[in-house]
Amino acid sequence: MTLLFAHQATQVATQSGIGIGSAVAVVCSWQRNRSILLASISGLFSWIYVIYFALTRTADE
Q: What is the total count of domains within the chain?
């Protein structure tokens, strides 16, 4: 019974809200651009933007 409840709670938590990729993308975009619009767009692209950011970042970022 406890295992079933834990599985259901985990499933609900992962289905609601934003994903970790979107959160990382928004933070990276905000740190670089300081623009809400660009941060929102980056959040939509999620891991694609995170990979782009990792490949194009400079030493001071």
A: 1
